[in-house]
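To whoever is covering the structure queue this week,

Two jobs came back overnight. Logging them here so there's a record in the thread.

Job A:
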Amino acid sequence: MNRFFNWIKALFNRTMDKVESPDIMLDQARRDMQNALIANREKAVQAITQKNRLQGMLDEAKKKSAELEARATMALKQGDRELATQFMREKMNNDASVTTLQQSYDSAAATVDQVKVAIKRQEEEVRKKTGEALALKAQWKQAQIQNSISKALDGLTFENQFEGFGAAQEKIREAQSEASARQEMFGSSLQGKILTMDDKARDMEAESELDKLEERLGLKAAPAPAVQETQSVGVGGAPAAAAANGVTASEAEKQLEELEKRLNSNQ
């Protein structure tokens, strides 16, 4: 039962919303003005009709007074004064009616003139209000369109769409920073240095093997054999083999120094 009453209430409210719509209200106001104008015109027609009737009665009364005066004149000419007096009495009574009718006619004519002016003003007001109603209806339509556009724009979510790109970029930057930090830590650690040294040693072995391959293929000339000079026994009686051993030791020192230089330059 409550659901039924709620449905009735919702239906009534929806109907009232439609009834209270500016379009319907303006149309109803325009119809009311037109009906009022029609009713006033009808009243004006009735007033003019009564004025015309009074004018006809006044014209007849004036005509009768003129006829009675003419008869009294004729009776005097004929020497019948008594008959002339009777016609003059009737004329006097008729003149009283003419006076009353004239007053009523003047009042009716003034009222009709006022009604005509009021009707003219009302017609002008109706035309003015009709134009205003059309302008208000146009404004109402524009307001509805603007509200529809505003409601449509309220549903747009540009910021939420771009938040995903920002979050992804932030994660990528964090991952890159972390990778750089790990590489930096790995390069400064002992294990990293050992691995680096091993990589350089393998590169040197690969270069040596490549040189040998080029020599076998004839792409590179073989290095000349080292010439070892023998020296005679010195004054102190040192044997020649000791001199030879001294030359060999100096060559080893030179090779070791070159190795250290390469290692330092690689680091």
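Job B:
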Amino acid sequence: MNAEQHDIGVSQVAAAIAEPARTKILCSLMDGHARTSTELAAVAEVSASTASAHLAKLKELALVRLHVQGRHRYYSLADKRVAQALEALMVIGQNAAPTFNPRTPDRLQFARTCYDHMAGTLAVLLHDRMIEAGWLLETDQQVYQLSASGVASFEALGMDVKNLGTLRRRFACPCLDWSMRRPHLGGALGAALLQTAIKRKWVTQDLDSRALALTALGRKELSSRFAMELPVQAATAQPASTETRRRAIASPVA
């Protein structure tokens, strides 16, 4: 890219950010959570069609990224460089980014199943910790690879990491959490982690609910093994009774 093309690129991005509705959209995404076009339209105080047009322009300039989860479509900032640029502008403008307040019922928000893997606050915290610890390595293809320490850590839990890599599905990938609007761990590795948590009685689940209850044992083990501090759950489950164990779900890894 020559100097003239660079200048044009800068001016196009600056013009996109400068539009008031787009500024509101981008700033609302700075907390790392993804939002729907309907939510962003409300934030920007514009119609749904106008918000869609703004989002198309922001996506064209690689300022936002589209996430498709089934029939739902969410938008997030394209990467941390966009957030850093916005932060610098907000310092100059002396503005603060808005906060994200999830509206999901507390029990489901804390921990639940998402297809065959774990979702909710607990799953997002575990995902972030695995990234921070260097167990999961991000790639440009929106998939994860395991580092040597990651392989050792998962195998220490009794998980057959090598076999998981041979299954006809993605090995490990980010899955956007619909309550937290941030990624948790999906793919074969995420499914195996949930089965391990159920088998070790770290979490329990009744047949009539997707909600997962973190047991006292699970809180102790996850805090120790992942070196993380877990938030207090409204009702931490006690070690499973015979009836609870009989009703616990153990979905097979696809």
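Note for Job B: Confidence is low (pLDDT under 50) at residues 234-254.

Please reply-all if you pick these up so we don't duplicate work.
Q.
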